[in-house]
Structures are given as structure tokens and as C-alpha cells.
Design brief:
171 residues, alpha+beta, 5-stranded antiparallel sheet, 6 helices
Length: 171
């Protein structure tokens, strides 16, 4: 869970973030510690889509004066993030800050864009359900070795190196 205070400031590019509780689950997909550094994130050379998403949502909540709760299912650069977010705007009416509470349910690699045929999509679905290559082969009437080869080809086409990173990709 992440808890942060976003100070909107007087100008659109004058916002600051102070993290009260940082997202602490380790990931190799992006540098979570660098992203969560206190201070003025927009002064960094790389202003990510993630930052823009949070700032825009905070600006909307602060301008309306109403809390904003939503399910987040977004792709930011090469990372797919799923979770829930609550934004509580400044109750004083000064419209200068908000509190962001976010719970991340899943972070996954989006891989390279690739189209899968029906057999590949069937394999991915059965993998998500926890079936082995042998069980998948029996279900779609292919040999277990063919299933293993198709999985390896899907990993190579998408640029991921593990089945767990392949599973969230649904193209």
C-alpha cells in the first residue's frame, strides 16, 4: 500500500509529492525507489506517464473538491499496473493538496506487442488456470512437447524471459 501527499502548488508544473508510506514490494520491472523519491518529480528529466496520470487525477479531485476512487488498470511505458486508488482532496477549500492512497494488486511486464493465434491464447488461458504442459496438451489435443515449444516461441516473440511474465499479456 502507498500513502502520499501531493502538493499541487500554484502552477501546473509546481507540484510536489511527499511519501508517508512507500510501495515496498520489490520489482525488477522499474526502479520503484527512484520513482518514490520525495520532492518535485516533474523536475526530473523523465516525466513518466505514471506521474502524469497521478498529477492529472489529483488536479481533478482538488478542483472538484470531491474524493476520487477508482480501479487502476493502466500501462505505463513497459509496465502494466493493476490496483485501486483513492484521492482525498484538501478539505479546507484552499485546493492546494490531496492525499493519495493506493494499493497495487499486480505489476507485470507488457512485453513487445505481439498477436497470438487461438491456440496460443488457449495455452495462455490454461497456464493461468494452473495446468501443466501435459494437461494443456490433453485439453487442446497437442503433444506436451508442442505446448512447451509454443510457450518458448511466445516468450521469444514478446521479449519476456519467464512464463509468469507472459501470463498477463493478452493480445
Amino acid at each position: 500500500m502507498l500513502l502520499a501527499i501531493v502538493d499541487i502548488g500554484n502552477a501546473a508544473r509546481d507540484w510536489r509529492v511527499t511519501f508517508v508510506r512507500r510501495y515496498g514490494i520489490p520489482t525488477t520491472l522499474f526502479d520503484a525507489r527512484a520513482l518514490q523519491a520525495d520532492g518535485n518529480l516533474c523536475s526530473s528529466a523523465e516525466r513518466t506517464q505514471f506521474e502524469l496520470h497521478i498529477v492529472d487525477a489529483c488536479g481533478k479531485a482538488v478542483s472538484t473538491g470531491r474524493p476520487d476512487f477508482c480501479h487502476v488498470d493502466e500501462k505505463f511505458q513497459n509496465v502494466h499496473v493493476v490496483g485501486d486508488r483513492l484521492i482525498l482532496p484538501d478539505p479546507s477549500g484552499a485546493k492546494s493538496w490531496c492525499i493519495v492512497l493506493a494499493e497495487v494488486h499486480a505489476i507485470s511486464d507488457t512485453g513487445r506487442p505481439t498477436r497470438f493465434d487461438d491456440v496460443d491464447r488457449s495455452i495462455l488461458q490454461l497456464l493461468r488456470e494452473g495446468l501443466s504442459a501435459r494437461d494443456i496438451g490433453a485439453a487442446i489435443e497437442l503433444s506436451p512437447r508442442t505446448i512447451e515449444h509454443r510457450i518458448e516461441k511466445m516468450k521469444a516473440r514478446t521479449g519476456v524471459n519467464a512464463i509468469v511474465r507472459l501470463l498477463p499479456i493478452t493480445r
